[in-house]
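Input chain follows. Return structure tokens only.
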Amino acid sequence: MDLGNLMASDPTHHFESVPSSRQELTRACLETGTELVQAIANAVFALPSTDDPDGPIVRLPPPTTTLPREKHLPKPKPPTKWELFAKMKGINKHKKDKRVFDEQTGTWKRRHGYDRVNDDKDIPIIEAKLSDEPGEDPFSKRKAEKKQRVEKQEKNQLQNLKQAAKAGALPSHVQLAATALPITGTNGEAPKKASKEELQNVAGMAATATASGGKFDKKLPGEKPAKHAGKYRKFLPVVEGKGMSSQEKQQTAKILDQLMNKSSHGMLDVNKAVTMFNVKKEKQRKKEKEHKTSSAASKLKPKKKSLKKSSKKKH
């Protein structure tokens, strides 16, 4: 019995006689399993317990049976460029102290963070070097150099992550090949063979992944033709070549013929056009008549005399 895993077994159990049917075998297994579960329950209730608002709590002993691991062991991460360089040069990693003695102030300060040692903000004067250009601000130069170092570090970190993701892998189009041979750079496991339904789904997605939705793609053997086949639009080339001017003239003349020839009269409703013309003429005639009537009436009206006072003074 293993109380740590809540597991019990009876290695000495045997059937007195061979079960005659499946129901008899199931009944015998259930009886034996019930006895084992009851034995585990008796052993758990015999352990010392502590009181709790939810009920008594029992601490199980450590397990004695070694069970197999469910997941595979984690693979070691691929080394970074710095780790490879340090291994080649024999550089050993050692932990640095958090506090460093500052010679300028004569006190112990942090190596990093707030109030750290050799902080750029605490340096009032920077000595000039022979390589410095005249008129250049050393403080802004130091700030720009620090920004470049940070960007370079982030770039290297991203590159290390990309290399770690590509370790032991091949391009996706190689891994998609359903062959019985293992893929180079892996643990030697053969790739899973794709089923017929998976291949049909992938083929359907790939066929409709083009800009035209697979309208102009070449059909596979045995594939049904499209109900509405796509038609390519034909345009005249931009640069004129031999005979290009005549083709352009023919195209323009064809369009004019469609608009001006006798067969194009079917495009125009003659009766409707005549009716619209007559209505327009009638409206214009009424408008002119009203204008003449209003002008004649204004001429027959008597003119009113002005009642303006004379500006001459009486003496």
